[in-house]
Structures are given as structure tokens and as C-alpha cells.
Amino acid sequence: MFRIIVMIIVGLIAGALARLIMPGKDPMGIWMTILLGIAGSFLGGFIGNLIFRPEGESYFHPGGILLSIVGAVILLWIWRMIQKRRTA
Question: What is the dihedral of CA 87, 25, 29, 86, to 10 degrees?
């Protein structure tokens, strides 16, 4: 249960920072921002596991929040490209 709460909090932080890094009009609420951050955390974790091999069973990664933000920025950019094509 504690991991889920931490994942939601990290997702909110990563999603909010990704939206601050890439300013623009995004019609998404707090829940979509959290989902963006959580998905960015998974993408960032995947990238981190490819670059840095984690030791043991640890889920904590030193660059975890940074890679979560990078993942969320990538997903936000993809989201904007999809939305741009839909409106054009």
C-alpha cells in the first residue's frame, strides 16, 4: 500500500514538473497529470534499467525522480504531437 502512495506522489511531482518544463496549453486535470507522471516514471525506470543495471531487488534508483521527469517530458511531447494531428 505504501508503494502505491509513493508512486502517486512521485507521479504527481514528475507530471507537474514535466508540465512546467514544457509550458503550453494542455487541457488535462490533476488526475491526468498524475497518470502522465506515473507513466513517465515507468518509462524513466525502463530507460534507467537499460543504462544502469540495478543491483539486487531494489526498486529505488538514484536518478529515479530525474528519469521520471525525463520520461514524463517525453510522454507529454508525444501527447502534444498526437493532439496536434487530431486538430489539424
Answer: 10
